[in-house]
Amino acid sequence: MADNTAVSQTEVSRQDVLSLRRSPLAERAAELDAAGGSRVRLREVPFRTQISLRAEPGGPAADGLEKVLGAPLPRKVGQVSEVEAPVTGYVLWFGPDDFLLVAGDEAERELSCSALAGILAEAVGEHRGQAVDLSGNRTVLELTGPNAVDVLCRMVEVDVHPDFFPVGSAILTLVAGSSAALWRTDEDSYWIMPRASFADHTANWLLDAMREFADRP
């Protein structure tokens, strides 16, 4: 009985802690929503699980990660792979040995971000690589709509034309002059992932660039 009570108290405590979280743009949700229209929309997607994975492609650390994830890592820089274990999510490949696992909010599952990072670190083992929980490092700004790409063109130095940046592409780049991950999640949908401390800065630039495409009365 004592053991069951301890487990229950731990679970309640974790949910209580998670309920106290505040995303970087929580107080601007209404502002972001009001700026959107039929041509382009912006919202924050907070509290995404983000686990940094470092492993040499084809090496033993990568092999261990693939066994745990139940799917191969991306085979080319800029590509994205879908995984289903230990959580449902996506792995983005940013550089030679630099991957990022992105999944849903840990409040919606039993496995915490730190526990997930621990499982993946065990998969790396003593080989060269690592798995680190960076979930609080970045937030997500979702830009959608037929003119989303036009807004991005005013903020990035890379070519985001569909011919060069198709659906399922993800890169690290500068967005509004600050470092951010950029992921094209659908035909007219992009995830912009700035560091939490630059969330307001990035949102301000996006809102300014969106004005040109606002619905007219």
From TrEMBL:
Cited SUPFAM superfamilies: Folate-binding domain
Top-level taxon of the source organism: Bacteria
Protein name per UniProt: Sarcosine oxidase, gamma subunit family
